From TrEMBL:
Residues covered by the CBS domain: 134-197, 198-254
Biological role stated in the UniProt entry: Acts as a magnesium transporter.
Transmembrane segments: 284-301, 353-374, 394-416, 428-449
Keyword hit for Signal: no
Name of the protein in question: Magnesium transporter MgtE
Gene: mgtE
Superkingdom, taxonomy of origin: Bacteria
Membrane topology reported for the UniProt record: Multi-pass membrane protein
Compartment annotation: Cell membrane; Membrane
Length: 457
């Protein structure tokens, strides 16, 4: 009697491809996109190709931009055009900007005329502006429409719009007159007109405004969407709250990179997908420049070599003074850069900011100075000192130098981003890379001049 061997696939009841397709159909698009990102491009598309078109578009939109470009580049023109046609206008325009020129030329003729014009219009806006990130899928209503007719109209157009919670009231020339929310329509009398219930105090941005400013408006006023108008006041698009989150995240990432002296943009590849050589290129420039500037610190130490030779204990506490100055300066720069980014302060507030930071630094300096004095007295009791110099005197020198370092480093940390903002430069770029080197130089000068003055060297 022969025993039939079970098919492993049947025994486990698991077909990896079918499991992924089921995941795509049943799970959130972000979860499915994360799973597909682990596959090679061809295998990922084999899964997506058999998924419901609307779900396929959602999942594709959650893939990293670099993976989107790579995947689209492998598709036949018909599949490429179908995929782009199904995408939301803002995502489609964003992807189109990233495609190689040959892919753009290949796919445009295969798109419907309305989609081609929409792509051209959205991609005409300069990168980083509100117009470049807005979508053209928004709901509009004429002012003389009744509430009953408006609700019926929204039922008809809802499947093609990104959001219908806000409907924007426009005239025949698409001038923005006001807006109504879905709640307004539901609670209003059926025979009331849109003009009767619309809100005329509309928060909006212009297409030429910086995208971060538009995102901050959404954040500040808790908006679901922000209307975007052209220079004539005509409605041309909206930015939704999810796009605002992406913008703020992108800008925050850029600020972090600049604050840590990493050149170039954050890019879209992600950390692991970025080649190591690109990481090197983005970091090496500032590091080489700052290393060259750091030679000044070496020259200062060389100039005061005799002082160090006479009182060798001073060398033991140099790192403590330098690190403390760097830490306090970085704290000050961080809070000022953040306040500038959030528009809480402006360069005109420089004196108020410096006064506040001076008050903070004096208190910090008093606390840290006392701790430094106690540390020297406690840890260096058995250290040999030159005749005429006591441990208390050395502790006083180190505490005084650290106190001066804390105050100056805090003020420098606040002043650098304010000066950069005044000169129309990026405060994060100027503040962090230059801060550490400048604080090191000033700290060494304070340290050695204090030692000479108080110890009479």
């Amino acid at each position: 009697m022969t025993t039939k061997q079970p098919n492993p696939q049947t025994a486990n009841n698991v077909n990896p491809a079918e499991a992924l397709r089921t995941l795509c159909e049943k799970s959130h698009p972000a979860v499915a996109a994360e799973a597909l990102s682990a596959l090679d491009v061809a295998a990922a598309w084999d899964i997506l190709r058999d998924v419901t078109p609307s779900i396929r578009t959602e999942i594709f939109s959650h893939l990293t931009p670099s993976l989107q470009v790579e995947m689209v580049g492998t598709l036949p023109r018909a599949d490429m055009a179908r995929l782009l046609s199904d995408m939301p206008p803002d995502d489609r325009a964003d992807l189109f900007r990233r495609l190689p020129e040959e892919s753009r030329d290949a796919v445009l003729p295969a798109l419907a005329e309305a989609e081609r014009e929409d792509i051209r219009r959205l991609t005409d806006y300069e990168d980083g502006t509100s117009g470049a990130v807005m979508t053209s899928e928004y709901a509009t209503l004429p002012p003389d429409l009744t509430v009953t007719d408006a609700i019926e109209r929204l039922r008809e157009i809802a499947p093609d719009k990104e959001t219908i919670y806000y409907s924007y009231v426009v005239d025949d020339e698409r001038k923005l007159l006001g807006f109504v929310s879905l709640k307004d329509l539901i609670l209003a009398r059926r025979d009331a007109t849109i003009r009767d219930i619309m809100h005329e105090d509309v928060i909006f941005a212009r297409a030429s405004d910086d995208q971060e400013d538009a995102a901050r408006l959404i954040q500040k006023y808790d908006l679901i969407a922000l209307p975007i108008v052209n220079e004539d006041g005509a409605l041309v698009g909206i930015i939704t709250h999810d796009d605002a989150i992406d913008i703020i995240t992108q800008e925050h990432t850029e600020d972090m990179r600049r604050f840590m002296a990493i050149a170039g943009s954050a890019g879209t590849e992600g950390y692991l997908r970025t080649p190591f050589w690109k990481h090197v290129q983005q970091r090496v420039g500032w590091l080489v420049g700052l290393a060259a500037l750091g030679l000044v610190s070496g020259l200062i130490i060389h100039e005061f070599e005799a002082t160090l030779t006479q009182v060798i204990i001073l060398a033991l506490y140099m790192p403590m003074v330098a690190d403390t100055g760097g830490n306090t300066g970085s704290q000050s720069a961080t809070v000022v850069v953040r306040a500038l980014a959030l528009r809480e302060i402006a360069p005109r507030d420089a004196w108020r900011v410096l006064l506040k930071e001076f008050q903070v630094s004096v208190f910090l300096a008093a606390v840290l100075g006392c701790l430094a004095w106690a540390k020297v007295v406690w840890l260096s009791q058995d250290t040999a000192l030159p005749p005429g110099i006591t441990l208390s005197n050395v502790a006083l020198v180190i505490a005084a130098a650290l106190t001066g370092q804390v105050v100056t480093a805090t003020l420098i940390g606040a002043l650098l981003p304010l000066a950069a903002a005044r000169l129309k430069l990026d405060p994060a770029v100027v503040a962090s890379p230059a801060l550490t080197t400048i604080v090191d130089i000033t700290g060494l000068l304070i340290y050695f001049f204090t030692a000479r003055w108080l110890l009479g060297l």
